[in-house]
Amino acid sequence: MKKIGLFFTFIFCLQLQAQTFIKYNPVPNIVGAINLGVETSIGKKTTFSFDILTSPWDYQGKPRKFIFFVPEVRYHFQEKYKGFYAGGHVAYVQYNSQKWNYDYLPNYYQKGFGYIIGATAGYQLPIAKKWNLDFFIGGGWQEGYYKGYDGETGERIDGATNWNISGDWYLYRGGVMVSYKI
User: How far apart are CA 52 and CA 166, in angstroms?
Assistant: First the structure.
């Protein structure tokens, strides 16, 4: 009986592995970030994608550290891994970064985390037997919780007792994932 269970587990794993892609997006490298992911089949026209986008270092002497975790369910309109798709996700971000408009306050930065509810639209193009290109763009609502600091003194600069809270609609992901079927 154990051999039969082991056999079916092995067959299931082979089937799952045959429908899984590992992915790399070179576009964020332009600003010093790294974007890796995996996408696997969960239904006839649905897949589950999990991406990590990170910048683990400072940029031009200013804090620009962040990490996004983006689990997403995708619906493929034609067939999986081919053609147009739409996806929905709930993501998490953690950051230690200076706001884009803080050039006049060069030592100030924010440290915090946020939750994101968003959507992605994309197109997957097979280019070889095991290779795909995944063109995508995504955005949504981000709710951030952060504290502002002075980089020289380490003191809070925002006057808040606990967390500052802000929310915005914006585009926060996009690029071309180079995908390889494992």
Answer: 23
Pairing outcome for strands 34-41 and 164-181: unpaired
Contact 64, 71 (CB under 8 A): no
The span from the CA of 163 to the CA of 146, in Å, is 5
CA 59 to the chain's CA centroid: 20
Residue 5: strand, helix, or coil: helix
CA separation for the pair 67, 48 (Å, rounded): 20
Q: In whole numbers, what is the pLDDT of the chain averaged over residues? A: 87
Measured CA to CA, the distance from residue 121 to residue 43 in angstroms comes to: 19
What pLDDT band is residue 8 in, cutting at 50, 70 and 90?
A: very low
Higher pLDDT among residues 68 and 4, named by residue: 68
Residue type, position 72, single letter: E
Residue 92: partners with Cβ closer than 8 Å, 6 or more residues away: 68, 69, 113, 114, 115, 116
Kindly indicate the confidence band of residue 169, based on its pLDDT and cuts at 50, 70 and 90: very high
At 105-162, the pLDDT tens digits run 677 888 999 999 999 999 999 999 999 999 999 999 999 999 988 888 888 888 888 9
What is the Cα gyration radius of the chain?
20
Q: Which residue bears the tokens 């060069």?
A: 106
